[in-house]
Amino acid sequence: MRQSKLFTKTFKEVSKDETSFNAKMLIKAGFIDKLAAGIYTFLPLGLRTHNKVCNIIREEMDSIDGQEMAMPALHPKKVWEKTGRWKDFDVLFKFKLANEKEYALGPTHEEVVTPLVKKHVFSYKDLPIAVYHIQTKFRNELRAKAGLLRGREFPMKDLYSFHRDKKDLDNYYEKVKEAYFKIFKRCGLKNVYLTYASGGAFSKYSHEFQALAEKGEDTIYLCQECSVGVNEEIIKEQDCCPLCKNKKLKKEKAIEIGNIFKLGTRFSKPFDLSYIDQKGKKKDVEMGCYGIGTGRLMGTIVETNFDKKGIIWPDLVAPYQIHLVCLDNGKEKVSKAADEIYQTLSDNKLEVFYDDRKDKSPGEKFADADLIGLPVRLVVSSKTIEKNSVEFKERGKEKTELMKIEEVILRLKD
Amino acid sequence: MRQSKLFTKTFKEVSKDETSFNAKMLIKAGFIDKLAAGIYTFLPLGLRTHNKVCNIIREEMDSIDGQEMAMPALHPKKVWEKTGRWKDFDVLFKFKLANEKEYALGPTHEEVVTPLVKKHVFSYKDLPIAVYHIQTKFRNELRAKAGLLRGREFPMKDLYSFHRDKKDLDNYYEKVKEAYFKIFKRCGLKNVYLTYASGGAFSKYSHEFQALAEKGEDTIYLCQECSVGVNEEIIKEQDCCPLCKNKKLKKEKAIEIGNIFKLGTRFSKPFDLSYIDQKGKKKDVEMGCYGIGTGRLMGTIVETNFDKKGIIWPDLVAPYQIHLVCLDNGKEKVSKAADEIYQTLSDNKLEVFYDDRKDKSPGEKFADADLIGLPVRLVVSSKTIEKNSVEFKERGKEKTELMKIEEVILRLKD
Q1: Residue B212: enclosing H or E segment and its boundaries?
Q2: B116 in contact with A, Cβ within 8 Å
């Protein structure tokens, strides 16, 4: 992509009503635009990053037999009444349609997925099932000031699993744990802790995945013995690690980036989602649900990967791998060389964002490259083309080195 | 994908409240599920088809310099008031959030994209711009009985273009026309006509793309001279072809699958979207908008590609290219041979839906294959493995032929 063609620009300042760190960074760098509090557009660069996050999640969900579909946002009142959550769910958007019937905008999909799966499950042979979707959720928040971390409208991956019995649910639950750690690792998040949280009526604990972050809105307590986290709610009930009973706990700020929950029969019972077992007996289906806010995950990556100059995108979620910056491109010789390098890199299937702008100074170009934060910056200038090379620099490191383009390709194709 | 693992089943009957042909077909075949009138889930097979439709659209939009992004569904009242459409837009969902402010659920995005683009446009050098997104729209319809053709919640691609002057808009408008015809052709739609429709205040005509369809809800008049269509609204004003003035017009039923519209300065004026031209003068930006309902397009493909037995998916939008059906798979020899063929086809990057179910009769398997409607059916049975072959049949044709697997690959890889 040629930067001269990209319709968005970077900004030095952000409107004062934006107080969230991730949103300020992403707006400045041209990844998102704020329409209203808690409501953002993903601009071209932001959409590319979000798509990469989603595709990593898809691969890991598919690898644990998740089947992708897409459930709607408009939910009829009757399914939410069936579970008692029409009244109880605190941030549910509710309204009447032109047909005078009441609907909600879905903040989660147990009420939709359970009756849907019921249409396809009859016998034990039809289980287990795992289905997921990545879709836009809505929450009627009174305040929404955390950028991509807490939106009124936000994209989310939710996986639901359906099992013959608790044992099968337990096994699957462990598989999801592993898949979640893989996702967060591939997204470049370090310091992610499985954290014990309240489990509701059907399970002693549920689990959150918490990423340590200076400005995190959650407080967690890290067990120094077994490296799990405990959330505040649990700590108020018991002042020790639920796993090893150790009391040496370190208080940390963190951002919740995922949660997994054994639902048991909380939703299968009201919808009568049952099956006939091997002995011909009717049994309730055991369910689990597993969420990752995909926009929130992108916001968390920013909250944990930055320096004074801008974002430092981890390799696999950067919108492009390379920022190719052409200096002196008033000179035809230089701009021609840069064009050729752009072509060569693209032919080698490397993703290149090419700063071919003619009306920007080197200082502005470097500042933009740092702000946007792609993993590798390559500079082409009068100086570099004399040596038939480019200047190679990794974002977040100071060192620059002159390199032949073939070497760049070899280094980055690994 | 192994059919035994797919969580959805096909259905012989559909609930009586579903009266739309496309929805009945797609529900029976396991592509969509109905949550409420005008509100559907895309099941795994349906999501695959919908993704293919969307990816064709993406390629054609990118080829005319469209930049993809993702704008939100929740729109603050103030942007809709600015254009006077808060009151005038007849199917606008409106409601109050917890913060007591009013919002709409977006049925279209002129009110969002115009102020967004304004943040990035200053000079003539910043134009032209074309941006699009594929996103979920909402319309507060009193009745919604046309399946995927008219939803209360529906996915749509909308492209918006921004130009220095009318001439540049006119040129781009023609490019979009070509791109739209390419999209519909690649989606396997025949008999698509550019159709003249009312243009509103800023242009004499706008254009619809209409696909002839027996059960189409629109009536169009085809000019026998110049092969364009004319919609009813225009015909009521003038009883001839707007292009050649010919009065020989043939009345046809059709489905609208796209529309393109020159907006002029209808939206740039209220948002003061202007630029400084070469002479230093401030000018209003000229805009165009271009829509394709992606779910509607999928529904139209079904309404125009079927027989008594089921859907007949065009090659590029079928969820899988091949339905590999194993008969006699109680016999280990046969099921092993089918497994190997499945592997070989998949290794050759062919997309295979593999009916490996052990509890279904050949009749049930053939009925499902016809209903689901993949382009090619391959049968593996005791009979075919004796001849080291598979039975090859194209959906919609009667002829079957025994074929070596290498020949199948050669035939389908083209």
Answers
A1: strand B205-212
A2: yes
